[in-house]
Amino acid sequence: MKNKKQPIQLFLKWFDEELKRSKVRIPSAVCLSTIGTDDFPNARFVSFKELIDDSFIITGPLNSRKGLEIEKNNKVALTFWWTETERQIRIQGFATKISDQLADKYFDARSTNSQAVSLISEQGKETDNLKNWNKKCWKKFLKTPKLAGHGIGVDFQLNRYELNLWNSRNQGFTTENFMKL
């Protein structure tokens, strides 16, 4: 039987190699796919934070579209594409909330501008008037007394997952599959 840690170790090795070679601004970007409230798939890029106890940590507000979709159906997928090393990682699993303490840690590590956007924007909500939305956000921003996390954001960990690693560079195509029970 394959060592259960092997794919995780390979992911970490590949991720480290990409970080060292990458010239992109956000090399930790990963595509998060959810099942929409309309039962259609939705995908967007989020920031992969770290791996804790074999769980992939991503962040985002609970009241955002992705947060509401995960609340309704926590089956999600993550897809990494790394240009420099020509590798793809696909992960399917179940998203669960992380602790408030860990969520605060990630929120506090963000820039002030990023914290403000997270606090005042209504991610995923439709607007028919961008100008009015901008005014509303600025009013909210000016009334926000503190830009600290404290339970505002929602952060997810992906656990009990299937991990598929694909490599095309210099060695033909290789695929590693792994199912965590």
Query: Which ranges are low-confidence, i.e. pLDDT below 50, for 5 or more consecutive residues?
Result: 144-155
> Could you state the order of secondary-structure elements as H and E?
HEEEHEEHHHEE
User: How is the main sheet built?
Assistant: 6 strands, antiparallel, barrel
Shape annotation: globular
Instruction: Kindly state the percentage of residues in helix.
Output: 25-40%
* Mean of residue pLDDT values: 75
Q: What's the total number of strands?
A: 7
CATH topology type: Pnp Oxidase, Chain A
Number of domains: 1
Strand content: 35-45%
| Through-space gap between termini | 14 Å
The CATH first-level class comes to Mainly Beta
Name its key features.
181 residues, alpha+beta, Pnp Oxidase, Chain A, 5 helices
Task: Write the topology of this structure.
Blueprint: H1 6-21, E1 29-35, E2 41-52, E3 55-61, H2 65-72, E4 75-82, E5 87-97, H3 100-109, H4 112-120, H5 130-143, E6 153-167, E7 174-179
Antiparallel strand pairs: 1-2, 1-4, 2-3, 3-6, 4-5, 5-6, 6-7
Helix pairs in contact: 4-5
Describe the overall structure.
The chain has 181 residues and is of the alpha+beta class. It has a single domain (6-111, 150-179), classed as Electron Transport, Fmn-binding Protein, Chain A (Pnp Oxidase, Chain A, Roll). 31% of the residues lie in helices and 36% in strands. It has five helices and seven strands. A six-stranded antiparallel β-barrel has the order 1-2-3-6-5-4. Helix 4 crosses helix 5. The longest helix is centred in the first third of the chain and has 16 residues, at 6-21. The protein is globular and about 50 Å long.
